[in-house]
Amino acid sequence: MDGVRLLQQGYLAGSPVKPQTAFSLPLLIFHNSLWNHCHIGAQPFTLALNDWLEPRSQRLCAPKGKHPRQLRKPFSAAVDMFRQLEEKRKKSIFSVLGLSNQEVLASSSCPACFGPQPPNLSDYTANMRNRLIVCLDGNFQHRHQIKASRNHEKLRTPQFFISQADVDIVSQEIRHQEAQGMTPEQVQSFYLKIMNETEEAFHFHRPIVVQNLTRQRTSNVMNQHGKDVTTLG
């Protein structure tokens, strides 16, 4: 039975071609609720599922074998597919209802705009209240993923998150404003400092690329200021 017919019967397949394992939608909904309220991994969840099911039914064996089937990989694939379906369902609802961005944020309960206020609200200044601050580690898994593989899964940005392209545009505008009124030497030193900080943050050991980027950005800023500058050699 293929994945489409399994879905019609209320199951999500663990693989797209000739699935051997499928999981019921109520089970995936239950796991998603647990995942939203506590820390739970796929491996312990599937092990607990096996412990609960085997005394009540026959053992689910691996194909052409007698040892129990490992459910972690197909279950993780089914969970990923379930979350993609949930995301498409939400987008379809927002599109049909014609909700504005503010209404989408309200329906998603963005904690910065619509969440509960902290008890020590008076400790913050007026411009710092009702703000959501998300701090991520810049080195989180970067080097490991680069060394492990290049076939990374495409990043899916949630509905109420700012896209990386918008962040880059604002960052460039901020740097351009900071460079206003500087001398050519100060601008060159300013962009060298930015490139050095970027190199240290992401551990990019590529001096030629960094040097070329520095040349290009420094030359662009100098041209905007209408001044000549000697690029780095």
TrEMBL record:
Pfam families: CxC1. Residues 2-58 form the CxC1-like cysteine cluster associated with KDZ transposases domain. PANTHER family: CXC1-LIKE CYSTEINE CLUSTER ASSOCIATED WITH KDZ TRANSPOSASES DOMAIN-CONTAINING PROTEIN, CXC2 DOMAIN-CONTAINING PROTEIN. This is CxC1-like cysteine cluster associated with KDZ transposases domain-containing protein. It comes from the Eukaryota.
